[in-house]
Structures are given as C-alpha cells and as structure tokens.
Amino acid sequence: AGAETVKRAVQLDVASRFQEALVCYQEGIDLLLQVVKATADEAKKKCYRQKISEYMTRAEDIKKHIEKEKQETFFSDGKYHKQIRIGENATGFGYEKLFHEYLTEVVSEVWVEDPYIRQVHQASSYLLYNFLRFCEMLIKGPCKVKTIHLLTSYDEGSGRSQQMTALEEIKQSLSNYGVTLNIDFSSSVHDREIRFNNGWMIKIGRGLDYFKKPQGRFSIGYCDFDLRPCQETTVDVFHTKHTKKM
C-alpha cells in the first residue's frame, strides 16, 4: 500500500498537481515507516529508509513550493485579497476544504466572531452544531490549536439557558483535548469573521452557517459537510501583513 501511494504521489508530482502529491507523499511515508518497523531484514530496512528519506526531501520541497506559490498568489503586485464565491446548492465546501490551506502547523490560537452561535431551534440554523464541527476540524490538525476565542450574542428568551448549556458542554469537551474555549457575549457584535494567529483572516458572508438544512437525519450530507448543499455566499480571505497597508 505504501509503495502504491508514493507511486501515485510521483505521478501527481510529475503532473504538477502538487497539493495532491504532497498528501500522497505524506501518507506513503507513514505507510513505509510502518513497513520498516515490521521488517527484520536489515538490508531491506536500509533500502526503505533511503527511499523514505528521498520522499521526505521531495515532500518538503513541494511544501515550500506551495507556500511560495500561495504567497505570490496573494501578495504579488500589491494583491492582498482572495475571494471565493459559493453558489446556491454547491457542494464540496466543508470546513476542511475551505480552511485547510490557512491552518498551518504554527496556528495555536483562533478567534471566531459570529452573532448567531445559538440554539438549533432557530429556523434552518444549526450554528451550535456547525461551531462544534469547526472545533472538531481544528483538533484534527495539522495545526496545534490551544485556545479558541468565541464572540457571539446571547440567545433570546428561553433559548439562552440552552445556549449556555451547549456552549459549556463544548468548552468542557475541548478541555479534554487540551484546548481552552473562551466565550464572550456582545449585543453589538455583527461581523462574521475567523482569524488565525498566523495572520490569516476569513470573512464569510453567512458566517459558519452557509450550509442548507439537511433533508433528513439519514440523508446524504447530514454528517459529511462536503456533501451538504450550500447557500449562496462569498468568502473573503485577507492577511494582516497586507491589510495594515490599506
């Protein structure tokens, strides 16, 4: 399996599909390392280690190339802004797909501002569950998030106690993974943005709630957000390195 995976990585590499190639290289290297551990033949171990070293070097080169390309895309000729348009009923825009390129390994602190992280009784709003799903994505990495700051508004009427109970449960669950959730409330918060301490800032027109309500609890897209149809919205990506120059 390891050999097949790195073979695929090489094919993608040659085709200049570098992001996909990097993923395959990383998966292949992990599989080959497992083979090395299970191999008693020292000659074979030496051969595997040599190949692994070559693949690791290439993976690092690709990672640097991707980062350089990303910088050039955003910052050449004074550019500092990238915009993504999500069409009505579009799929393939789960949180991992949308945020993965900005969640580098140095990310340890995240700020979420959204006035509607509230209970699920709202019409077509599943923001508490969406926020939980966003937190799950952060825990899975590759970033090493230690602190999440949430700024939202209080739910109205009887929904407030349910909102507080749900957020407290998320907070406690995150603490089991070594992540601190700081929650603040404001009646005047209206911006919807997410910031990472590596400088990236993402503004989504609908905040985290850009997915449509699933057709049923057992319909495709209920669990996998990549398969969930979206509402039309716009995603704007900035970097503090250049927004300060505006």
UniProtKB/TrEMBL annotation:
Q: Which domain of life is it from?
A: Eukaryota
Which residues belong to any copy of the MIT domain? 1-71
Query: Which Pfam family is one of those matched by this entry?
Result: MIT_C
Which protein, by its recorded name, is this? MITD1 protein
